[in-house]
Write a structure and sequence with these properties.
alpha+beta, globular
Length: 89
């Protein structure tokens, strides 16, 4: 059982508070979810939705992980491609 309640966004555009961002980073050991590489001090990283919002994922703490900017852009493009294909079908 968690000692702290999971953060869940009220809507998909709600910014993730800095304390939650840090909690997610620490939970993942500071490792990029996409590349598997340790994020070094000073490197830019973003929160990445493990299951993309556009593909039915939720805007909540346990659906997020840290990701370096470049791998995150690549995954986002792939997620959008999947969504576009689903929309066509």
């Amino acid at each position: 059982m968690r000692s702290v309640e999971e953060w869940i966004g009220k809507h998909d555009d709600q910014p993730v508070p800095p304390r939650i961002r840090l909690r997610i980073f620490n939970r993942c050991g500071g490792v990029c979810h996409l590349s598997g590489r340790k994020i070094r001090p000073g490197e830019k990283w973003e929160l990445e939705h493990i299951k993309a919002l556009c593909n039915g994922g939720e805007h909540r703490e346990f659906n997020m992980a840290p990701a370096l900017v470049k791998p995150h852009k690549i995954k986002t493009a792939a997620d959008r491609k999947i969504k576009a294909k689903d929309d066509r079908v």
